[in-house]
Design a protein that fits this description.
The protein is an alpha/beta fold and 182 residues long. The chain is 30% helix and 24% strand. Bound molecules: ligand FFO and adenosine-5'-triphosphate. Adenosine-5'-triphosphate binds next to helix 1 and helix 5.
Amino acid sequence: MNTTNIDDQKRKIRKEIKLMKQDYSLKQRKEMSAPILEKLEELPEFKEAKTVMLYWSMSDEVFSHDFVCKWASKKKVILPCVKGQTLDLKVFKGVEHLVEGENYGIPEPDGPVFMDEDEIDLILIPGVAFDKENNRMGRGKAYYDRLLQSLSAFKVGICFDFQVLDHVPIDEHDIKMNCIVY
Ligand SMILES: Nc1nc2c(c(=O)[nH]1)N(C=O)[C@@H](CNc1ccc(C(=O)N[C@@H](CCC(=O)O)C(=O)O)cc1)CN2
Ligand SMILES: Nc1ncnc2c1ncn2[C@@H]1O[C@H](COP(=O)(O)OP(=O)(O)OP(=O)(O)O)[C@@H](O)[C@H]1O
């Protein structure tokens, strides 16, 4: 199978998942998110982690805002910042220090870039779809694929249950998760 074909398959899945997500209100999404985040908190790798990279959820993802705030007083919490084709990492210092990011307007920390990538013990990664073999597909910009190439942290994919498929198409760049919580 050639790459174009895989990109086509991914595009089809992104469209299908997008339709399923439209069924949920913010209230429902928060209710669906709580038990997923509780599972994450039970993971030994999360409990032991001192530095974690989380994400500030967009309107169709597992709701993470309260989770980020909750854990920021107990662990060093890093968030991704869009910088051209790549992601910068910055330490979360509170909601009042979030600014609108470039391109997608996702809130991200202001302040200096966090350079100690090796210090990150665990990284929580949202995605459009995952499969039982721990494969992940994202929004199609390969931001996380590029970032993960240089990180050795424990990788946890996170999504709603309807986003776990039997099989997601993968190409040579895609990096597997260590586990998925949903
Ligand atoms: N919460 C969160 N933060 C994140 C990511 C993410 O997936 N979730 N990212 C993970 O990479 C990076 C941002 N990447 C993004 C890539 C695409 C789109 C997006 O809105 N895409 C449109 C269609 C594409 C387009 O605009 O051409 C869409 O999905 O509808 C948003 C963020 C860094 N921060
Ligand atoms: N490390 C990489 N370097 C250069 N190009 C890449 C890399 N990883 C993926 N690509 C290319 O970028 C495009 C998008 O990749 P892909 O569909 O895997 O992104 P994604 O994992 O869904 O997105 P994201 O990681 O942003 O959530 C593909 O055409 C892919 O071949």
